[in-house]
Write a structure and sequence with these properties.
single chain, alpha/beta, Rossmann fold, 4 domains
Amino acid sequence: MDLFASSAKKRQVGQPLAERMRPRSLDELVGQHHLLGPGRILSNLAPGRAVPSLLLWGPPGSGKTTLARLLGETLRAELTALSAVDAGVKDVREAVAKAAERRDQFSARTLLFIDEIHRFSKTQQDALLPHVEAGTVTLIGATTENPSFGVVAALLSRCRVVRLEPLSDAELAALAVRAVGDRERGLGSLDVTLDAEVSAQLVAAADGDARRLYSVLEVAADLARRAAGDTPAAAITAEHIAEAAQGRNLLYDKAGDEHYGVVSVFIKSMRGSDPDAAVYWMTRMIEAGEDPRFVLRRMVIFAAEDVGNADPQALAVAVAALQAVELVGLPEGVLPMTQAVTYLALAPKSNAALTAYAAARKLVNERGALPVPARYRPGATALDRSMGHGKGYKYPHDFAGHYVPEDYLPDELVGERIYQPADSGFEAELASRLTAIEQRRKPR
């Protein structure tokens, strides 16, 4: 499959606007100045210049495919394109064999572009390794996912990761102006106009994605032209943009990098006691179609990990929200979710449960299964009692204040401190209680 076969032909009637408006040179490319500006990795490209194997990582519509094509044309290298969605090891081997033939017969270099490279299996990615390492092909991979997760380490180490950023509002607006005025490839023949206010609405609907910008603009321009009839000029209106956009597409892949990014900032917002941000990121997930139970499970974990005994009620609130959503479902379920997330964000914080478990786990792993002191073993049978089990145990309720100083850890660990209560919220009260208990444990 050659993703760029159409670029060598005369543009066909019916091609989407996004395809017709693809830049024909790097000079036409809008955005990505951090890659193409003076002194940057892709600056001063010229025919015959070598470039390293690259992994182009960026959101949809940021120009990964376009940049790969322009690299091939600028360097005058053969560009072979595969899509990881439908290509297999056989396709990779055929592409590499042709690249080796071009190199040996014509001293020509080949750029092997693989779109959605993160969808290749480990076996398929491993098949690329020797050919990339030997220089038979220069790999140009495109991915919307973090290459650290989607590309095997051996291949990742042989490539330069290049991050493409979403296009800015100003850059998207410039693309819209160019498309409206271009009579050869764009919408110029329709004689449509786009004022600044409507352009801003279009840019908002695109959300950094040039491909979506062109798709919405093309439909909106057609709506405007049909509404205008024989009128020479047709104004694209806010209503045309709204009809063409049909709502905003939220970038959120439930199994990908954006998913983990949004989940991460959601948790960090609660941890940072920012209820506004926490509700915003929760809403982003829900509106993008995330399973609310996934979000609620994160909240239950957070209540124990980051709030803990600083506010013991937090865990009850999170669990109650989970139960409420399971009872009423969506859309009403967003209300207990919002109630819970704002409570968690504003609750006093303590990670003592996390650190206590980590400290205990460290002792268990380092010291192994230390024996239970005999006095704490059950002395239920005559054999147990003959072995000293239960002998000397002091029953706390027989003493004043229902407490008697004792060491319940294994004898080898007596004196170890595992739980360190914070000085936040209710846990400050627990810290005070622990201090009082420790005072009673000290010999007089």
